[in-house]
Amino acid sequence: MNNQIIYRKIKNITQTGTLYSIYCVVVRASEIKKSKEDYFITLKVTDETLETETLGINLFFKDDHYIEFIKPGTIIRFHDLKITKTGDHKLGTANLDAINSTKIVIQNDANEPISLRGNLNFNSNDEAAFQQLRQFYERLLESGLDNYAHPEQRNTNNNNSNVFNASNAAQHFNPDLAKNSFKNSNNAFINRIGDLVVGCYATLTCQIVSIKPIFGPPKRLSVGLWDGTGHGQAAYEDKLGMVIYATAFEQKTIDIFENFKKGDWLYIERIYCKQYQNVLELKFQFTTKIQKLENDNIMVLKLKDDYGKAIDNYNGPNTSEPSSIIDPKENFKTISDKSMKNNRGRQLTRTEYSGLQPVSTIQDVIASRQCPNKYLISGVLKQHFPLNVQDFTQILCKRCDRATPTNTIYNLDSGPKLVDLPICKYCQSNDVSYIYLAKFIVADETGEIELILHYDAPLFFQIPPLNFYLKDSTLELQRLQEKISNLKLSNMSNELCIVSYYQNTNLPSPDTIRYQIVDTLMTDY
After folding, report:
1. Comparing 257 with 187, which gets the higher pLDDT?
2. What H or E segment, with its residue span, contains residue 132?
């Protein structure tokens, strides 16, 4: 098949709308982005015929399997790449899921050829072309050309955007560790999930908290891992620390986990850290090594000892025996079984569905794209909008069905601007009522989600919607502010019932799916 294919050099690409076959090396690669119906990454590629020019490629796909292998330095063979623009800024488009789409072959981190689409062979000519481009890329790195990105520069332009974890991992970001991990061949021994950075290969000692098969497509396995350090917040059940989810696509890795169960300790080498749909996650690679650790392993004992001390510190003084009198080698089970005080992580919300159906993770809710549908989630309130709780309510006109913020008719300096009773500023009707209209950012260990508070907000707060700028509403405002403050406590994870709906019912699509809190109320703690 390859003998019938003519490979062009990038400098010889001159016609738009034409399909070309090329060998190239990636010099820049963006993060995964969302399009209307699928996802894409933007690549800048070149070959040995160009000194400073590049070819831009928008690579579309529906599933990210193997996509993270495409990064600066990756050699790619494209078949049937469609060119959409020529001249000084050449541009191509590839879609891995369309019929008769572009076919791609790359080499993974173990230098094994991978076909991203199509059953394509890989012969000695391909290997020679790949080797030539590898040598060319090494020369590029040595030359220090500013318009080519080094591998360690990928994902390091903005530290805040590179580290995202719903369990507050960003506040534990260590820039020195991140910098060193990229310099050392993207490989680092990282014992705390909070220190993970996008694009690094980590070595972790961790405990399995969940094993969930996903039957695809594609078939894969999701494994919840807890770092056991006690570093962070209560992110899983009553454990202190952080949980991250790792995905296995390869059957040989999936088979390995048939020998493991929840509660087993693992030592994992060279597992890849990535960001997908704004969630930090891990992926098992071909070169990832997995080893089960016994409970009396020295690394496990050390973690359990540190965890016992972290629990003592979390619970406060005089809540348990001093950890200094415990011999971790002989009493590791006692240490690991320490739990947080019951009043930590108490539930401030209640739903009629509690205990009746499984709790969904935020990652699963967003990925399901089912609409309309109800879910039960458990998460922490990270932020609310408007930021001023007084602005949680608006005035809804029953005649024109338009809403007006309460602060537009009343403020603390001038008092009422129109009349004592509110009227609609659009149609001047006094047939109005107060409504709640606010947004919560809620997070669990898998990600964040935006939740609207509207129809069931009076049930949720157990406070009727009022104009909280009025003196008559002072007591209700204080109650509302106290409820919000308690919800935002970092260790408060609460059950919420949510429903998915289309923001625009005339144009239903995954991009217009929104979520609203329903059938949930705050308890009178």
Report:
1. 257
2. helix 124-143
